[in-house]
Design brief:
- The chain is an alpha/beta fold.
- It has a domain of 87 residues: Rossmann fold.
- The strands form two sheets. Strands 2-1-3-4 form a four-stranded parallel sheet, with helices on both faces.
- It is elongated.
- It binds zinc ion (ZN).
- Zinc ion (ZN) binds next to loops.
Amino acid sequence: MVRFLADEMLGTVAKWLRILGFDTEYARDMEDDEILSKAEEEDRVLLTRDTELFDRAKKRGISAIYLPHAELDRDMKEIISVYPPEKERFMSRCTLCNSEIVEISKKDVRGRVPEGVYERQDRFWYCERCDKIYWEGSHWEMMRSFAEEIQE
Ligand SMILES: [Zn+2]
């Protein structure tokens, strides 16, 4: 599966790609040279709003997608028209750090999630690195419908 490197302007796009299950690094506080080297070394497709960075990537033979519009829907459609997501990978990654999240048993989250959530939900996932627990709440549903919408 393709891996991405999103430039500093594309934090929201990076988050959404993680939600769709793509391994997506986010280039925060990185010089252009570092970004290009990282994309090259880790074989990542560079996503950028910066026309100069895009041109430099192309010259070095690095795959890149230029996203000039600053509209999330449009950006996402552009990316997934080239790299369609795999349905079963939806919500398999932590949106904060890009790690894969693992399912944990309900009893292990008792007292660590809001009481109402504990009562309503049966399945939970966990990011070890961020110590963050995920569940299929309303936020999740909203993300799923957005993901379906942009794939139409
Ligand atoms: Zn995390």
